[in-house]
Design a protein that fits this description.
- By secondary structure, this protein is α+β, with helices and mostly antiparallel strands.
- It folds into three domains: 126 residues; 143 residues, DNA methylase specificity domains (Adenine-n6-DNA-methyltransferase TaqI, Chain A, domain 2), CATH 3.90.220; 189 residues, DNA methylase specificity domains (Adenine-n6-DNA-methyltransferase TaqI, Chain A, domain 2, Alpha-Beta Complex), CATH 3.90.220.20.
- It contains 13 helices and 22 strands.
- Strand 4 and strand 5 form a beta hairpin.
- Helix 5 packs across helix 10 and helix 5 packs antiparallel against helix 13.
- It is elongated, with a radius of gyration of 32 Å.
Length: 494
């Protein structure tokens, strides 16, 4: 569908409303039900569905105003169901659910079709009063009103009678034909020079179309800018973890030490923690093979695994049916908390007893927490604790042995960059998951500590500029969206 058509269909209700305003000065307003009946479908039992037979047209079986038979259900032919048959040119409408109000016109050569319940068909009572195609534009005119009329909260519904009780205006067949020609030519961007039924009304609608096109083009450009900005942030992070972002800085600072020396410091700190019995000895991780290395790094950098430089732990979920485990004083978070850069508060608190009787443990401020579960955006997200907190089993807590803010922030930025790669490591069926071992085995391109500080500072500086630009783009988008609403609103009021 072209940009012109998209704008046309998005704004068609406003166009028809404007046409109806013009018609109201020449014709009487009446009930839709005086001329058109909404016929509902039959409540077919799913237990009686067949692999062959007559297709049953459900709400899910029409898209973009066409019948789609790809996933259709079938029913054996029954003479008693003849009144539920659909024919070429019939106009149907969804009367329930999230897509309530959507329309379809039955195409040719589809053969016999049955109409399912909660799908309504526009049936003309007096054909002498109508040009057949005008019924479609009437349906288009009530589409938005049906959405507003729908009741039922989570499952909106509209009844046959509610639609039939809507006001509408029926002009002469001559004017119907002219309106049809105007709307079709406008839809196809093939307007003639002369006016069709009313010059003033048509000019107003044409201006709405062009205004909509201009605003839509701005929206497209804004979306493109947002996409480019996301790509820019990813490029910055990629340049950072490859050492390219700080190449000039590194050349000016040749005496900053090496990552090999840093790894020795971390190893010493780990051994100290083991000796003090603050952590347990861990199994050696597999060595890094050359074919695992995804990119080249500077000479004074080193490849290592996350488990070589940090303790990686997880948590548990105390039995929710046990009140004694909840409403205590201990912060407890789930993987949903990883959507923010920092965790400053916990929605749930657990008790000391929960800590004692489950695998929960408290992780200190500065611990990085990565989500291991979830099909949506959650899996692979990383955050930082700004409060002491326990976690559930869907989180991996990363506590780096060497306590240094720059090292902590570098690892956090590193995981933000490899977010998609981390997600790819997940395994499982409907609910792919990471596991502790995969998190521990994650490869890190480790710079010397001083360079880490420079990398983090540079990223934050560049991201601040990006965020300022993003804020400006979002503000422009909001302005355009509001302007679009205002323009369409005025069309209903004028």
């Amino acid at each position: 569908m072209s940009n012109w058509e998209k704008v046309f269909y998005n704004q068609i209700s406003a166009y028809i409303e404007k046409i109806n305003q013009f018609l109201s000065t020449h014709y009487e307003v009446t009930r839709l039900g005086n001329y058109i009946k909404i016929v509902g479908g039959y409540a077919f039992k799913s237990s009686n569905y067949r692999n062959i037979g007559i297709p049953i047209i459900r709400i899910s079986d029409f898209q973009n105003e066409k019948i789609v038979l790809d996933n259709v259900k079938y029913y054996e032919e029954n003479q008693n169901l003849s009144k539920y048959k659909l024919f070429e040119g019939d106009i149907i409408i969804a009367m329930t659910g999230g897509t309530i109000g959507k329309l379809a016109i039955v195409q040719e050569n589809l053969g016999k079709l049955y109409l399912n319940q909660r799908v309504g068909k526009f049936e003309v009572i007096n054909h002498e009063k109508f040009v057949q195609e005008y019924v479609y534009w009437i349906a288009r005119g009530v589409e938005e009103r049906i959405k507003k009329l729908a009741w039922g909260g989570a499952q909106p519904n509209v009844s046959n009678k509610q639609i039939e009780n809507m006001d509408f205006i029926l002009p002469s067949k001559e004017i119907q034909s002219k309106i049809i020609s105007f709307l079709n030519d406008l839809k196809n961007n093939k307007l003639k020079q002369n006016y069709y039924f009313d010059e003033k009304c048509e000019k107003y609608i044409i201006n709405l179309q062009y205004n909509g096109i201009n605003l839509n083009n701005i929206q497209i450009e804004t979306s493109a800018q947002q996409s480019l900005l996301k790509q820019l942030k990813q490029t910055i992070l990629q340049e950072a973890i490859e050492g390219k972002l700080t190449a000039k800085w590194r050349a000016k600072n040749p005496d900053i030490g090496t990552a090999k020396e840093l790894l020795e410091q971390i190893k010493t700190e780990k051994e100290k923690l083991i000796k003090e019995k603050k952590i347990r000895p861990s199994k050696p991780l597999p060595p890094i093979n050359e074919d695992e290395i995804p990119f080249d790094i500077p000479q004074n950098w080193e490849w290592c695994r996350l488990g070589d430089i940090s303790f990686v732990g997880t948590g548990a979920t105390p039995l929710t049916s046990e009140p004694k485990y909840y409403n205590g004083d201990i912060n407890w978070i789930t993987s949903s908390a990883t959507g923010a850069d920092f965790v400053t508060e916990a929605e749930t608190k657990i008790t000391e007893l929960a800590l004692k009787e489950t695998n929960c443990q408290i992780y200190p401020i500065g611990t990085l927490v990565i989500a291991m579960y979830g099909q949506g955006k959650t899996r692979g997200q990383i955050t930082e604790l700004m409060i002491d907190s326990a976690t559930n089993q869907a989180c991996a807590a990363i506590s780096i042995y060497l306590k240094d803010k720059a090292l902590n922030q570098f690892i956090k930025k590193y995981f933000q960059k490899i977010y998609l790669e981390i997600r790819e490591l997940a395994s499982g069926g409907a609910q792919p998951n990471l596991n502790m071992q995969k998190v521990k085995d994650t490869m890190i391109a480790l710079p010397p500590l001083e360079e880490q500080k420079e990398i983090v500072a540079t990223i934050e500086k560049l991201f601040t500029l990006c965020n300022e630009l993003e804020s400006e783009i979002n503000q422009n988008k909001t302005t355009v969206d509001n302007l679009m609403v205002t323009v369409l609103k005025e069309s209903f009021e004028n």
